[in-house]
Amino acid sequence: MWSIPNLLTFSRIIMIPVFIGLFYLPAPWNHQVAALVFMIAAFTDWLDGFLARRMGLVSPLGAFLDPVADKLMVATALVLLVADNPSPWMAISAAVIIGREITISALREWMAELGSRTTVAVSLIGKFKTATQMGAITLLIYRHPLFGLPTYRIGEILLYIAVVLTLWSMMVYLRAAWPSLSDKKDVPEA
Q1: How would residue 179 be classed by pLDDT, with cut points 50, 70 and 90?
Q2: At 186, is the pLDDT very low, low, confident or very high (cuts 50, 70, 90)?
Q3: I need a surface site. Which of 26, 49, 54, 177 has the fewest CB within 10 A?
Q4: What CA–CA distance (Å, rounded) separates 117 from 173?
Q5: 161: buried, middle or exposed (CB in 10 Å: 19+, 13-18, 0-12)?
Q6: Extended strands (E) in 79-151
Q7: Which DSSP symbol is given to 96?
């Protein structure tokens, strides 16, 4: 339970209130430091999985908590960004990303009940979507120009790309699971 990958996952969950506090801290550097915390969380998301596989420390607890920690941090960041910039495009983007995560989580649970969880395993498009999403959110949180680059605008563009990739990856997962979803036999009771 207390393996390095699991500790990294727990640290990501613990970072959420720190991230929120920094985001709202009345200081001129609050968003830069909040973006750094978000980047660290995104890095630990990659690192805990890498270490778990490399060191042979994959555990049921880690397999459960890792995606939960990731989704909690991303959803928190998106809610804060929408509250900070209540535009329709930001709200739609956040709703699509959060909605996709809920849909795919439910789909994976359903497929596991049917014994077909590997049908909805993480795909390459899902990994690319995650990387684009993490980059977009980091830049949107950071928001201040960096080396003359409009980080917020770049973050918005990356977020819209992430939304397209989000929908695309969801369709890939749903298409892979469709034969099981459309089968009328062996439907588990709710």
Answers
A1: confident
A2: low
A3: 26
A4: 11
A5: middle
A6: none
A7: H
**Residue environment code for 38-59, b if the CB has 16+ CB neighbours within 10 A, otherwise e:** bbebbebbeebbebbeeeeeee
Chain center to CA of 18: 18
Written as six digits, the tokens of 138 are 């980091």
Q: Are 30 and 84 in contact (CB under 8 A)?
A: no
3-state secondary structure at position 146:
strand
Query: Could you state, in order of their start, the residue ranges of all structural domains in the chain?
Result: 4-180
Query: Three-state DSSP class for 99?
Result: helix
Q: Could you give the CA distance from residue 161 to residue 130 in angstroms, rounded to a whole number?
A: 11
CA distance 41 to 45: 6
Residue range 4-180 in CATH 3.10.20.30: no
